[in-house]
């Protein structure tokens, strides 16, 4: 079965490792991802901060193109893009006047009918049913599953049963042979879009996240959002300036972790692309006993 | 860029908010959960529940006070407040509207100017290419904010790790994006 795929801008740039590892895992499991042709940027925080109609029209153009391509399901791995696409879909399907106006802007009909999947839903519904035979390795370390904001909230879009204390990522990491820890900051905000304009705020918020994960014994942080990954990894120098005890805890994408447990080489999963070395985590990986 | 609303010119900010976002501010009973859970409450000049209280009370001068606050620009739209609100007040959507109104009335707090410049540089890049190129965005923001050397130390290693694309991505027909932006801005 073909599943539609919206990479979003980050996955072509700073979040490349996310798309590399996602494709490696999907390929291993025989799942084909079909990119939405000629997709555009979701507008991110900038559009919804400055212009409401634009914040719906930008994702709507992509949704309309997906409908043209007859894609019933679209995987949006970036949690931030997911938030924008799902929000646009919700607004389009509940406000007929807005739908008409947006359709005029983009010069295409848009129904908002495709199902938009988070990476967690994609893993649960499409990878897990076939994954067992490929899970040959164990990650053998303690990990902190970090959801951040937009994978968890708002719950009418993310469809999580427990938005304050979700467990979906933990299920994935247990399958990968890691030991998820119990911690307090899994759905706290990393500072997101203020990364460049207010790096000081991002450093403060991200430092609290890193500190809590480390103090509870985590040896890696696993994420499902390129913004969270960038803030926790690329901003480590600024984060460490806030911390009494400096930390070199690596920050992996969930698809990289799953890829390691499938025996896919670290380079193919983009694990060499992070600022904080993922070497320690890779060296913990061991064969699963049969 | 501004959102257009059917304003009669004498509608209060409270009424504009209620029309644009579809919430009744009186439903808030000031439990304070929004402020308690806000990751940026320490940085804010007006607390989230305080903004709602001001919209409820509408005392003289409240509009300018809200629209020139830094809080409306610091809000990260993390949705913690909305998720915990017993009355389901869509505070992040209210914040979006207040930012747009603050630009329209030229009341943006000077301390928030760089946040606004970043958003503008971001949208300029999307208007140009339909996709965001992180390099283009960074250069554009640096020129406008004059933070020319910020993050320069990261550039070489980002390039080396293949995280910084030099060739810009764009939609097939970039004029389509320019047209879309033009229509929305009127």
Percentage of helical residues of chain B?
A: 40-55%
CATH topology of the largest domain in chain A: Rossmann fold
The computed structural class of chain B is: mainly alpha
Shape of chain B: globular
CATH architecture of the largest domain in chain A: 3-Layer(aba) Sandwich
Cα separation of the termini of chain B: 10 Å
> Which chain pair has the greatest contact?
A-B, 54 and 56 residues
Please give the largest β-sheet of chain A: 4 strands, parallel
Mean pLDDT of chain B: 88
Q: Would you list the SSEs of chain A in sequence order as H and E?
A: EHEHHEHHEHEEHHEHEHHEHHE
The largest sheet of chain B is:
none
CATH class of the largest domain in chain A: Alpha Beta
How large, in whole angstroms, is the Cα Rg of chain A? Answer: 19 Å
Count the beta strands of chain B: 0
Kindly report how far apart the N and C termini of chain A lie. 30 Å
SS field, number of helical segments of chain A: 13
Spans of at least 5 consecutive residues with low confidence of chain B: 1-7
Strand content of chain B: under 5%
How many structural units, i.e. domains of chain A?
A: 2
Element layout with pairings:
The complex is a heterodimer of chains A (290) and B (186).
Chain A: E1 2-5, H1 16-28, E2 32-35, H2 44-50, H3 52-68, E3 73-75, H4 79-94, H5 96-106, E4 115-117, H6 119-131, E5 137-138, E6 142-145, H7 155-158, H8 168-175, E7 179-180, H9 199-215, E8 220-223, H10 226-233, H11 236-242, E9 251-253, H12 254-261, H13 279-284, E10 286-287
Parallel strand pairs in A: 1-2, 1-3, 3-4, 6-7, 6-8, 8-9
Antiparallel strand pairs in A: 5-10
Helix pairs in contact in A: 1-12, 2-3, 3-4, 3-5, 4-5, 9-11
Chain B: H1 13-21, H2 33-37, H3 48-57, H4 62-67, H5 71-74, H6 80-84, H7 91-104, H8 113-129, H9 134-145, H10 155-160, H11 174-185
Helix pairs in contact in B: 8-9, 8-11
What features would you describe in this structure?
The complex is a heterodimer of chains A (290) and B (186). By secondary structure, chain A is of the alpha/beta class. Chain A folds into two domains: 2-117, Glutathione S-transferase Yfyf (Class Pi), Chain A, domain 2, CATH 1.20.1050; 133-287, Rossmann fold, CATH 3.40.50.11810. In chain A, 47% of the residues lie in helices and 11% in strands. In chain A, strand 1 (2-5), helix 1 and strand 2 form a beta-alpha-beta unit. In chain A, helix 2 (44-50) crosses helix 3, helix 3 (52-68) crosses helix 4 (79-94) and helix 4 crosses helix 5 (96-106). The mean pLDDT of chain A is 96. With 186 residues, chain B is mainly α. Chain B folds into two domains: 13-107, no CATH class; 111-185, no CATH class. Helix content of chain B is 54%, strand content 0%. Chain B is built from eleven helices and no strands. Chain B has helices at residues 13-21, 33-37, 48-57, 62-67, 71-74, 80-84, 91-104, 113-129, 134-145, 155-160, 174-185. Chain B starts with 12 loop residues before the first helix and ends with a helix. Chains A and B meet through helix 2, helix 3, helix 5 and helix 9 of A and helix 6, helix 7, helix 8, helix 9 and helix 11 of B.
């Amino acid at each position: 079965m073909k599943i539609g795929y919206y990479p979003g801008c980050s996955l072509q740039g700073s979040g490349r490792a996310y798309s590399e590892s996602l494709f490696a895992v999907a390929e291993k499991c025989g799942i084909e991802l079909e990119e939405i042709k000629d997709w555009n940027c979701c507008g991110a925080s900038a559009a919804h901060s400055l212009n409401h109609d634009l914040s719906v029209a930008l994702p709507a153009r992509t949704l309309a193109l997906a409908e043209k391509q007859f894609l019933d399901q679209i995987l949006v791995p970036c949690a931030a893009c997911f938030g924008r696409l799902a929000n646009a879909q919700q607004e389009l399907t509940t406000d007929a006047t807005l739908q008409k106006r947006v359709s005029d802007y983009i010069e295409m009909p848009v129904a908002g009918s495709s199902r938009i999947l988070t990476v967690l839903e994609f893993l649960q519904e499409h990878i897990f049913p076939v994954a067992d035979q490929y899970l040959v390795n164990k990650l053998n370390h303690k990990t902190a599953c970090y959801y951040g904001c937009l994978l968890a909230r708002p719950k009418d879009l993310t469809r999580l049963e427990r938005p304050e204390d979700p467990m979906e990522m933990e299920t994935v990491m247990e399958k990968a042979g890691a030991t998820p820890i119990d911690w307090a900051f899994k759905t706290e905000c990393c500072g997101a879009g203020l990364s460049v304009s207010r790096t000081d705020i991002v450093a403060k918020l991200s430092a609290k996240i890193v500190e809590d994960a480390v103090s509870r014994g985590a040896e890696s942080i696993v994420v499902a959002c390129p913004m969270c990954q960038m803030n926790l990894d690329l901003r480590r120098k600024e984060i460490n300036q806030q911390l009494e005890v400096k930390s070199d805890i690596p920050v992996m994408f969930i698809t990289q972790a799953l890829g390691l447990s499938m025996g896919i080489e670290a380079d193919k999963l983009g694990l060499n692309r992070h600022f904080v070395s993922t070497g320690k985590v890779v060296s913990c990986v061991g064969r699963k006993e049969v | 860029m501004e959102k257009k609303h059917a304003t009669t010119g004498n509608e209060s900010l409270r009424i504009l908010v209620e029309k644009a976002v579809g919430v009744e501010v009186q439903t808030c009973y000031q439990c304070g959960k929004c402020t308690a859970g806000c990751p940026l409450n320490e940085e804010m000049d007006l607390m989230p529940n305080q903004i709602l209280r001001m919209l409820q009370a509408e005392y003289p001068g409240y509009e300018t006070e809200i629209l020139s606050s830094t809080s409306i620009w610091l809000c990260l739209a993390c949705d913690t407040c909305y998720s915990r609100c017993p009355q389901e007040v869509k505070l992040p959507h209210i914040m979006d509207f207040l930012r747009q109104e603050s630009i329209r009335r030229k009341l943006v707090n000077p301390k928030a100017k760089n946040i606004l410049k970043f958003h503008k540089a971001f949208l300029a890049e999307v208007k140009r290419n339909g996709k965001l190129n992180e390099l283009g965005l960074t250069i554009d923001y640096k020129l406008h904010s004059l933070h020319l050397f910020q993050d320069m130390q990261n550039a070489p290693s980002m390039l080396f790790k293949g995280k910084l694309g030099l060739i810009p991505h764009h939609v097939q027909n970039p004029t389509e994006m320019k047209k879309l932006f033009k229509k929305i801005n009127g």
